[in-house]
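Design request, tokens follow.
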């Protein structure tokens, strides 16, 4: 039996434990939880965990008394680093949600804490280890493009309204969508390009579509007289298959943020320079829906162009100097494109000392340094150098 202690027993970690961790290790039990919302956490817990679980006031207390085999941190974004710094003091395998930090201060504290730590960390980066990305990596390693000199990466999010209609609208917690979303993309781009991002210039469009002065704070569709005509109301989204159909905060409401006070961007783009001298573009759009969904990259070198799209579940290799193009179809229906199963497998194998993490704390920190550079570039209008963690990744 694996005894897991969880800090922040919210929706994401609950889904992972239920659908992926237990699939890999049916004997896993959640035996300790640190979460100020005990009632909410208890309601999410599996029946098999409810009897034996204990709630603790803080992480050190849980580690001291919980007889744990491993830890998981599933709080919202702004608490990951604080708890991870505490966890670094123990040798327990740690599953850490992304983003690993939301500020430079937090990222530096993490770097310091893990420099001398023996705590093995699996960072929750499902895209990097998804089967399609791993296949792309294999193609790259086999010379499909030659030296990768250019990348175009896109992320047209079909469920982007969550960043204005749920708790993710809270900018103080999320700190914008480079940190929240692009941390995955910057990480897999580093992996596939075989080189870290060293310089970023970014722009964002903020407050043009979502947010604004349209509705008073706290307005939800269920209390809104315009729900009949609004394209964002649950019933219209259901009619048009254009998004989540739960009752939600108004995405055009005052409390979705303002550009002055800070709010998530409608779309944002970054020009990236890699240490290898390659460069590329990453762009993310959050108001797209339905068949507009696309996430993936096109990587080119002199010898070829490789592109893949997680939504199409497809990889395409074009040979520049031979008359062949091949397309590979991937399996469908897996959570985070198969990445969650891989994360779960890694975490269980790390706990059993059978392997090392593939998504390490250093990858999490390096990615956040690139995201923080993009955020700073939006503010300053200038290129920003990306701090390097200085560890072999
Ligand atoms: N890796 C991925 O692909 C992926 C996917 C979805 C979400 N996430 C990340 O998962 C995190 C959690 O998201 P969620 O949707 O589950 O949120 P959530 O609100 O459902 O869960 C957060 C939990 O943390 C608890 N909490 C709040 N303050 C706390 C504190 N001080 N100490 C301990 N617990 C505290 C809350 O009560 C709640 O139970 C987010 O940071 C999000 O970015 C990652």
């Amino acid at each position: 039996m694996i005894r897991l202690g969880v800090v922040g027993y919210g929706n994401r970690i609950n889904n992972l434990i239920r659908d992926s961790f237990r699939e890999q290790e049916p004997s896993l039990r959640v035996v300790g939880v640190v979460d100020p919302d005990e009632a909410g956490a208890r309601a999410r817990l599996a029946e098999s965990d409810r009897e034996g679980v204990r709630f603790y006031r803080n992480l050190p207390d849980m580690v001291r008394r919980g007889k744990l085999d491993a830890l998981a941190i599933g709080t919202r974004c702004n608490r990951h680093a604080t708890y991870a710094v505490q966890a670094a003091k123990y040798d327990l395998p740690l599953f850490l949600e992304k983003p690993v930090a939301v500020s430079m201060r937090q990222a530096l504290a993490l770097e310091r804490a893990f420099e001398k730590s023996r705590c093995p960390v699996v960072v929750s980066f499902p895209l990097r280890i998804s089967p399609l990305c791993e296949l792309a990596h294999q193609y790259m390693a086999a010379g499909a493009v030659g030296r990768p000199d250019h990348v175009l990466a896109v992320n047209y999010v079909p469920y982007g309204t969550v960043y204005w209609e749920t708790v993710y609208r809270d900018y103080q917690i999320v700190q914008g969508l480079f940190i929240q979303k692009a941390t995955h993309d910057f990480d897999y781009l580093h992996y596939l390009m075989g080189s870290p991002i060293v310089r970023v210039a970014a722009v964002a469009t903020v407050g043009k579509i979502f947010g604004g002065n349209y509705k008073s704070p706290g307005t939800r569709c269920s209390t809104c007289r315009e729900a009949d005509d609004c394209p964002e109301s649950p019933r219209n989204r259901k009619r048009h298959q254009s998004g989540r159909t739960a009752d939600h905060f108004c995405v055009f409401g005052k409390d979705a943020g303002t550009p002055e006070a800070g709010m998530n961007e409608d779309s944002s783009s970054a020009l990236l320079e890699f240490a290898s001298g390659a460069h590329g573009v990453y762009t993310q759009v959050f108001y797209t829906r339905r068949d507009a969904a696309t996430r993936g990259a096109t990587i080119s070198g002199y010898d070829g162009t490789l592109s893949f799209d997680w939504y199409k579940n497809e990889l395409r290799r074009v040979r520049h100097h031979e008359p062949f193009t091949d397309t590979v179809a991937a399996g469908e229906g897996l959570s985070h494109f198969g990445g969650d199963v891989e994360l779960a497998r890694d975490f269980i194998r790390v706990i059993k000392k059978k392997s090392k993490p593939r998504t390490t704390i250093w990858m999490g920190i390096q990615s956040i340094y690139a995201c923080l550079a993009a955020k700073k570039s939006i503010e300053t209008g200038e290129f920003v150098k990306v701090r390097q963690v200085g560890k072999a990744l």
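Comment from the thread starter after seeing the answer: thanks! The longest strand covers residues 197-205.
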